[in-house]
Structures are given as C-alpha cells and as structure tokens.
Design brief:
The chain is mainly beta. It has a single domain, classed as Beta Barrel (Porin). Helices cover 5% and strands 54% of the residues. A 14-stranded antiparallel barrel has the order 1-3-4-6-7-8-9-12-13-16-17-18-19-20. The longest helix is centred in the N-terminal third of the chain and has 10 residues. The protein is elongated and about 75 Å long. The protein starts with 5 loop residues before the first helix and ends with a strand.
Length: 443
Amino acid sequence: MNKNKTLPLAIAVALGTLSSTSAMAAGFQLAEYSATGLGRAYAGEAAMADNASAQFRNPAMLTKLEGTQVSTGMIYVDPNVDVDGITTQTNLITGKKTQTATSSKDFADAAVIPNFYLSHQVNDKMFLGLALSSNFGMHTKLDDNFKGTQFGNEASVMTMEINPNIAYKINDQFSVGAGVRYVMGEGSIGAIASGGMAPAGTTLKYMEGDDTAWGWQAGAAWQINEDTRIGFNYRSEVDLNLEGHAEGLGFNLYSGNPNILDMVKYAGSMALTMPATAELASFHQLTEKVAVHTSINWTDWSTFEKLEANIPSLSKPNQLVKQENWKDNYRFAVGATYQLNAQTQLRSGIAYDMAAVDDANRTITIPETDRLWLSLGAGYNYSENLTLDAGFTYIFAKDAQVEEPRKHIDEPEEGLAAAFGGQFKGQTTGSVWLAGVQATYRF
C-alpha cells in the first residue's frame, strides 16, 4: 500500500494520531464527527449550528455561523466485541464430525478520531467552510487461535476526508449549501486456515490497497419560524478502487505456480464503494431553556454487495474475496438541549441504529448488528470567544447470530473455506463507549 501516501499521512499528523477505527454507526460508517453532537446521540445534526463542525452534516448550516470560527477536537472510541461459538470439522475419509468450542475476545480496535473545521462569513449572504474528518472506518482482527479464521480473520477500512463547502442564505427562511469531498481510503481483508487441509495460520486470501476519489454533498435548511428549523443533507457515494496486492492459497490456485504454498504477492485492485447517505433533521426551541431535535438517517448499504479482487496475472482475474449482500439501513435519533445558565448547556440523546445486514448474511469479520445509543454532553462558554464541549455515549449492541458457511450463498469459495478449519456457528456480543472533547474559537 505505497500509492498516494504522502498527503494522507500529512493530514493525519496535522490532526493528531489517527488509529485504525472501529465503526460505531451501521456497517463501517462513522457518525463521530464532533464531540458536540456526540452528547446528543447526533440527533438533529442537519438542523444544528453549534459551531463550524455543523457543515460536515449540512453545509447550509454555515449560514447560521457569524464571523470566522475554528473548531477542533477528538473522540475516543473503545469497543468491546466478542465472538463465541463451535466449529464442526468433518473427516473427509471417515465422515466423523469433531466439534470444538472457540472464542475471540475484544477483537475490534479502540481508536482516536480527530477532526478540524473552519467557517467564514464572507457577507450577509455568502459563507465558506472547510472540514477535515472521517466518515468511514473500521478494524477487526480475530485471535490467531480462533477456530473460524478460515472465513475471515481481519478486515479494515480507513478513510480521511477533505471537504470544502459553500453556503448561500436565500432569505431569512431558506438557505442552501454544497461541497466537494476528497476522500483518501485504504483497506484490507484476509482469511487464514485454522486447520484442516492446510497448517493453521496459512494465508488463504489476503488483499490490501489504497486509493483516492471525489464525492460531493448538498444540503438545505428551512427556518419555519423563530423557534423551528428543518434541515436536509445528502452525501454522494464515493467509488474507491483500492490498488495494492493480494496473496494466499486461494489466489495461487489460478497462478500456474506448482507450489501453491508459496506466498507470492500479486498486483491487483479491489473496488469498494463508500455508500450515499441522507439525513432529515429538525430543531425546535420549546421554551427559553429547552430545545428538542430529531434525525432520520438513511445509508445506501445495498451497494455493498461483494468484495471482489481484480488480479490481471491470474488465469481467472476476477476473484471473489467475500460475498456481503448488505441492505439499506436507517437510524432514528432524538435529543434535547437544556440551557442551564448563560455559560452552560446540557445535552442528552437516544438513538436506534438498524443493522445493515440480515442474520443470514452476517459475517464474523464485520459483526454488524442493531445498536442503541445513550448519550450525555455539555458545553461551556469559557469566554465570549471560546467554547468547550464534551460528550459521552454508551452503545448497547444487540447479540447477533453468525453461521459460516452461509447456507444460501451459492459460491464455491464459501463452502471450500470449511475444508480449512470446519463450519462455524456462534454469536457475537458487544458494547461500546465513546468520549469526546472539542474547542471552538470565534474571531
């Protein structure tokens, strides 16, 4: 993964250390763009304008920010994801079945997700903004002694995004905004034998690569009256073609190499789409001290149908790495803000994030399931120019069943993997806590 490295690394250094991330929204999507929103479970984001970070969820909200503002912060994500189950291995000669209990604990990485935002009011009508953050990321790695790694032992996606925006205030009621997105991404996926036809630990399939691509976003806001506002935002899909290398027995079978145990690296690529998203949000000031806000989010996860490598040097260039068969998902959130005094705001929120995959299509390496968010946060006006924000969220992940090979997947690779360690049937469990801090300075 050597291509396009200089710019992503420079940005990562500018923002702070960026660890491999574990997705806390559906699939491998990251909702954690600001500590301000974290404290209300990201409810009402497309209709909120607390600080310059608002542009990442709706560029039209730049029109609610006066002067020049800089906002920066980070969110620490600590997932606890476990998998427990039983592998069933069949002796090819005698037909005897052997069952083995197996588990892998805490196999999703903790992470720090940094962000930086800048907004500038050009005049009464025109506003500019710049956002640097991440919208997709994950990293899972099962224990090497887990007896299910033949179906996948690791998966990762990491993206960094540069997002300049512009907004225009049509009148006191309507505003619009748009921006371009330069996305730098890298990813990997792999599987190793856990016994059977090859020594445990033998690489069956591994692919990694990186790429950059362009996308866009557009949003609008309607100030219905002094107390009520509705916002809408749409972010386009981004098509990455991760160029890098592949290796493993699954690829060697098509290489013409008589020694299939050789770990030869083949140049190749793998297409990966960052799905389109949309949000409809509302904000309502109930009383002088209390406001409520809501969001409905949609993500086009049905575009994540399969992972397929293209390796020109093989006799069969297009190699299926993993069939996914995901579906579109929805997220529902409601939050409240309480103005304790002139200096302090208190926030809270609850959200329900629906899984982007059915039970029948779930895999061990991306243990996607329903999530319930509970959030608390606060903002403190340290001075007229400086505001400090903090947020905390605890996520309950629904227990989810996993069975591989998946019975309805009509692909030779799905069944063949069982020969390198047996069938797996089990359950993933997990929870996550997140804590974030943010500072905003107004010039």
